[in-house]
Specification:
Layout: E1 4-9, H1 23-42, E2 46-51, H2 54-66, H3 76-102, E3 108-111, E4 114-116, E5 129-135, H4 137-147, E6 150-153, E7 159-163, E8 170-171, H5 174-182, E9 186-189, E10 195-199, E11 205-207, H6 214-225, E12 229-234, E13 239-241, E14 249-251, E15 253-255, H7 256-264, H8 274-286, E16 289-294, H9 298-302, E17 308-311
Parallel strand pairs: 1-2, 1-12, 2-9, 3-9, 4-10, 12-16, 15-17
Antiparallel strand pairs: 4-8, 5-7, 6-7, 10-11, 13-14, 16-17
Helix pairs in contact: 1-3, 2-3, 6-8, 7-8
């Protein structure tokens, strides 16, 4: 049987730094990404794709804020669903067109995905994830008073709203995604970390205002699907230790024990590579092979010729 890959692609695959967030720019970037992802299908793998949505959901949130006097605002979980829909549409369209050009016969589908979180997650009491537009100090105080938002200064660029970013506990649609993938479908799912939901004791499910880290949700999806490989595709070819120093070293094939020791040393910052290494390491410990590599080198990485490859 062919192996199943869950590939989590970074936001740069949809909107690159400094680019204007037009639909055309995003579609062009996704079209380029599809050319690399299609190589995995051509090589005979089954593929599930997850993606980020940071800039996109931020723009939708800004539209809601600007038009609040004209159109009622929607909660953040609904905005996550909106971004899953239009990013998924772009990916499905670009993959289908790329497959047609390559003579690949593989159906592609986008599945709206809900992710279970806990109301008791500490991030609900102490929100940590900045989202949306930047505001002046005066504007941020006004928004905090009027809307009850928690506002923080972000990187010297102004003040932003921060929202909870709880740990993903379960992918509600994991079995459906697995069934679709095993039947030969390429599935786009769990976009932007998924729509955060909580389940009451009665069994009722409802959305909550939060965002979930896409790499952590990607790991949880790959684990629940029992995928063979979890790939985190980013804009660098390898994970590095001693980054930015004369002792900088790229990590290639590496065992979980050695990667654990680097994590214990604090080699990977929480704001960049940390969550990726954490998610990849957890998958390698519990389920299968984890790879962190550049999108452009995805075919080489799956052959063991590029990227950071973590195994037992």
């Amino acid at each position: 049987m062919s192996k199943t890959i869950v590939a989590a692609i970074g936001g740069n695959a949809i909107l690159q730094a400094g680019q204007e967030g037009t639909f055309e720019n995003q579609m062009n970037n996704v079209r380029t990404s599809a050319k690399f992802l299609a190589k995995l299908i051509k090589d005979g793998y089954k593929l599930v794709i997850t993606h980020g949505n940071g800039p996109q959901v931020g723009n939708i949130l800004r539209q809601n804020e600007v038009a609040a006097d004209v159109v009622p605002q929607l909660p953040l979980d609904a905005l996550s669903g909106q971004s899953q829909g239009f990013i998924g549409y772009m990916m499905v369209q670009c993959l289908v067109n790329e497959f047609q050009a390559l003579g690949i016969d593989a159906p592609v589908t986008n599945l709206l995905t809900r992710v279970e979180v806990s109301r008791d997650d500490t991030d609900f009491q102490n929100p940590s994830k900045p989202i949306g537009a930047f505001y002046s100090e005066e504007e941020s105080k006004q928004l905090a008073a009027e809307k009850g938002w928690k506002m923080v200064e972000d990187s010297g660029r102004g003040y932003r709203r921060v929202v909870p970013s709880p740990e993903p506990l379960k992918i509600h649609e994991a079995q459906t995604i697995k069934t679709l993938a095993e039947a030969g479908n390429v599935v786009v799912a769990c976009g932007g970390g998924g729509i955060p939901v909580v389940t009451a004791e009665s069994g009722t499910v409802e959305g909550v205002e939060a965002v979930i880290d896409k790499d952590r949700s990607g790991f949880k999806l790959a684990q629940e699907m029992e995928a063979d490989v979890f790939m985190i595709l980013t804009d660098v070819e390898n994970v590095y230790v001693n980054y930015g120093t004369p002792e900088q070293k790229a990590l290639g094939q590496i065992k979980v024990d050695e990667m654990d020791s680097y994590v214990a040393e604090g080699q990977f910052s929480a704001g960049s590579m940390g969550p990726k290494v954490e998610s990849a390491l957890q998958f390698a410990k519990t389920t299968g092979t984890a790879i962190i590599c550049s999108l452009e080198q995805v075919d080489k990485a799956i052959r063991g010729e590029s990227g950071t490859i973590i195994s037992k």
